[in-house]
């Protein structure tokens, strides 16, 4: 990694001049400043954000606030964050919000009190909490979920497209009474995936039937209860799209407990690939997210935000991929 001295040598100036240019001090001749910027760009120089934070009496800690590290989706994502943070000289403090805005708020308060260098958050739905960080000028990146009313760097996946593809796949498999088990209404991924499901039905000329939609808690027990409710409701589905990994597992457990053959009687597609989705029987069709890349991208954005606090906010959307396995293939 290029140092300030490499840049000075390349530009033919002193290290002090490079420091003044990098920190935006106007006391440098324009021609010299241009030489410094050119040399820094050619060497891909990154001002030492860690040293910068220490001078600003901040820590070298990042808070990563997610729903539940026990969920394989978040495990891989946090690993992507930590690998980048460590190389940039930062350490990660992991916080599980459990989709609880009050618990999330406690962790945000800790990040403020400790003057953490930055926060990466998969929000449980409360914009005011995240805006407290932004008002305190603590660099923030939203990951996995968007939050109306918050202007921050954001890294998402194409949730609606992934959900529409999954539902269209069930329609192509011959399903016509497709249920959707989705997450909490305040969570953007739950609502975006529900919208993708509804778009696919509409594109196939099938009227949306709210009797076939259940909102649960993104957890296994919630998926199980939602599946049981659908089976007991009389509006028996012939296909199910569950919008996260744990609820998919719960729904399939319910079908197995009821002796309902998958996919013969009810086909199943989930969202979030599961490391062992190909090992269970039937193997699970899922919409895979680039979880590690989500984390890595968010960490790079946070590192750049720390280095350049005034840069314009940006949004990155990564692509999902439908992985068709036995739980949705008929005939
Ligand atoms: O499993 C938890 C879900 O919530 C994941 O699908 C992830 O996208 C998050 O939004």
Describe this structure in words.
Helix content is 44%, strand content 16%. With 331 residues, the protein is of the alpha/beta class. It has three domains: 4-53, Orthogonal Bundle (434 Repressor (Amino-terminal Domain)); 56-157 and 291-319, 3-Layer(aba) Sandwich (Rossmann fold); 159-289 and 322-328, Rossmann fold (3-Layer(aba) Sandwich), CATH 3.40.50. Strands 2-1-3-4-5-11 form a six-stranded parallel sheet, sandwiched between helices. Strand 1 (61-66), helix 5 and strand 2 (91-96) form a beta-alpha-beta unit. The radius of gyration is 24 Å and the shape is elongated. The termini are far apart. The structure holds alpha-D-ribofuranose. Alpha-D-ribofuranose binds at residues 67, 71, 73, 144-145, 189, 218, 244-246, 271-272. Alpha-D-ribofuranose is lined by residues 67, 71, 73, 144-145, 189, 218, 244-246, 271-272.
Task: Sum up the structure in keywords.
434 Repressor (Amino-terminal Domain); Rossmann fold; six-stranded parallel beta sheet; six-stranded mixed beta sheet; 12 helices; 44% helix
